[in-house]
Every structure is written in C-alpha cells, then in structure tokens.
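Researcher: For the annotation table, I need structure tokens for Lysozyme. Please keep the output clean. Sequence:
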Amino acid sequence: MNQTQANADTTDDSTQTESIVSNNTTSTNSVTLSSSTDTNTTSTTQTSTTSTDNSNTANTTESTTASSSTTTTTHQHLTLAVATSSTFSTSSASVKNGEVTEDDVTYYYVNNEKQSDYFYTDNDGKVYYFGDDGKMYQDQFYSNWGNMYYFGEDGARYTEQFYSNWGNMYYFGEDGVRYTNQFYSNWGNMYYFGEDGVRYTNQFYTNWGNTYYFDEDGVRYTNKLYSNWGNTYYFDSYGALLKNQTVEIDGVTYKADSNGVLTKVNTGKVGISDGAYGVDVSSYQGTNMSGYASNGATFTIVKLTEGTTYVNSKAEAQIDSAQANNQVVLGYHFATFSSNASAAQTEANFAIAEAQALGLPSGSYLALDWETGDGNVVSGSTSANTNAILTFMNAVAAAGYKPLLYSGAYVLRNNVNTSSVISAYPNSLWVASYPTSGAIYSADVAYFPSMDGVAIWQFTDNWKGLGVDGNIAVQDL
C-alpha cells in the first residue's frame, strides 16, 4: 500500500487592543490573534491483483482499482503577545522600628513612635539609653536614683570598665553603676573610688580607724614603705598604716609611733650565742639598760605581763633601751594559771597581745615563768601541770614566737614532765639554779643543773652586784 500526505497552512491575522487599569496606574497591552487553517488532503490508491491460475478448465483475470475521496480539516491557532508600557507597586508605606538615624542623631522607634526616656538592650546584652528628647546618650553621664552611669561613644553603657576624663579615673561595675565610696580589687591590686567617683591617686584615705595610701596608679600600698616630707611609713598586709608597733622589713627593724612615723631600731644581734651573758628585768629594775650592756650583757629578758590583767609599765622603755644598747630582747610572762589548761590559754592570749602591742618582733623568744608565787600553785599533778604549760607554749608558738619555760631546777624536776616539754620544743628550758647569794660575776659550772634541754641558765640573782638576775646561754639561740 502506498500513502502520500500533503499539508498546507493558510493564516488569517486579526489584531485586538486591550486597556487595563489597576491601582491608579494605566497599562496598555497589545494583543494579536492569529488564525490559521490547516488543509489535509489524503489520496489513496489501492490496487488488487489476482494471479492467473492456468488450468484446463478456466482462465480468469481480475483487476480492481479503488480511489477514496479527499478529506479537508481546518484548525485555528491563537497567539497572545503582551507589551507593558509601565511598572506599578502594590507595597504599603514602611514602618519605623528600632534604631533610626536622622540628621546624624540616633533615635529609637517602636511602630513608628519615637521613644523617650527609654532603655534598650541589644542581643549582645549592651544597654543603650534614649533621653527625654529621644536622642541616644553618647559620651555622657546619666544619673538615676542616686546612681551614676556612663554611655560611651557608640551609645553602649559602660559595664565593668574604667573611664578616664580630665585626668580623673572612674569605674563602672557589672550593673553599670559608677563606684562611689568603694574599694575595687583587680589582678591582686586594691583601688578606692571616692564620694565623687574619682579614683584615689597619690593620697591617703582613713576608714574605721585605719589609714591607707594609694599611689600614682591608684594602687593601694600593701607590705610597703612610703616616704613623704622626710617621714617614713609602713602599710601592712591589709594595706593599713602601721601604728604603735615594731616591724622588721628587709632585715631592718622599725618602730612606728602613734602617727605611723617610723624610726629605725638598732636591734643588734639576731640570735644569742652559746656562752653569752644576759639579764632579766621587771618593774623592780630601771629603764636604762646601758649599765648592763657595758658590763657584758648581750641580751635582756623583759617581763611583759602577769596573769590576765597586769602589764609591766616599764616594759616598753626597757625594750627600747635594750635595743638601743645593741642587745637582743626576749619577753616573759609570769603565770598564775597553776595546772588549769583553760586558764593557761587565756593567759597566753593576754601575753601574746601585749608582746605584739609592744612591738616584740615575730620569731622572738617569749618565755613562760611558771613558779610558786603570786597565786600560782605548782602542787597539781605532774600530768595536769605539764598539760597546762604546753597549752601556753603551743599558743605562743602558734602566734609566731619561740616558747621557753622558766622555773627553778627543783620545781621542774618534781612537778613537770620536762621530757614532754623538750620533746615538743627542744632546748626550751630556762632554769634557775644558784645555791649561794651575793654578787656573782661569772657562772660557776659546778652549779649547773644537770638536765636535758636547757637553753639558758640563771646562775645568780645579783650579777656583778648590779641587783639584777644574771643569765648565761648554754645553746646558740
């Protein structure tokens, strides 16, 4: 079968113009409609041939030709072309929210409404303030409910920051409040900000009876000497000005008066050598140690206290004189607690406080005079006596002093377990033993008390006829 198809298109054009109006904006659109006709012609030829079958009876030939009719189909095609002559917007007017800068001034809006007297915190936690006129605070202070704040160049409130202005330094804490009448500690340094918020610099400050000093950087003096107008002062570990005390600084001993002014003290030796002579004094002796020093006394043991109320009124002058005469100074307390450990602790506290008040330097010897007399009883049990004595000595050691125990050889042998004492504090016995009276010029070893742990031997009550007890060191102290 053979099939042939032919297509022919015929186009009929027409044009339509349409106007569209929307939101007061006119747009003209041109629309072109194209109509086309498709004609399809189909021609079909069919030929059928029947073969000839030669036979003796028939000879038949058949030829058939069929021709179909022509069919025509018409299609219309529509084409739309739009040309826009203008563009339009359907968005509404913008709404102001947040920070808005107008004429180089920053304001804060909420739904188109400008805010005034308004605080705002951003996502970073920074705080901003917009004043009564709505303007952002920048490079200016702000006062509220007695507190002062500062807003920087970018408008952010100062928090945990220093601020310097016209040579003055301020500090604003974690809540933004300026420090006023307040200490501030940073990196181990202490500062103070006064009533006007200005950091103290090169000036003194007195509070609760203590005086402090702040240097040119505002740092409080601590464990440090300060000199001004020819006077020298010392500020302790708490930053307080030292008054009415003695202190050793870099190997030099100073005494501070009631105004804190220091004077150097000649303390002489820092220890006592084996074989060195010394004296012990109380209110019965005078305050001038020069006579003892000129006779060879290199140390003086000064009575400071007795019981819980008595203070030797001459002690301070005796200490000063001994130091001025190049003598090592030791102190002692006369006990009245007998075998009462609780009372021993109370007396120890009293003695230590007075030693400190008199300026006896830490590391000095502070002895316990435990003997019969002035209400002290030694007839308690050896165990109770020893326990009370060690209670006192332990308190002395805890306060930074070196404890000694004084008594007569007989009392120590019969009423105290000296083995326990020297086990806790080796070579800590100061023993009195002198069988004869009268002026004694030097120690006679024949009368030395044969005891362990003896550091100092009191060998006479009238050394060289000076009316003072004579002592000799039998150990390096």
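Researcher: And a one-line annotation?
Model: Residues 341-357 form the longest helix (17 residues).
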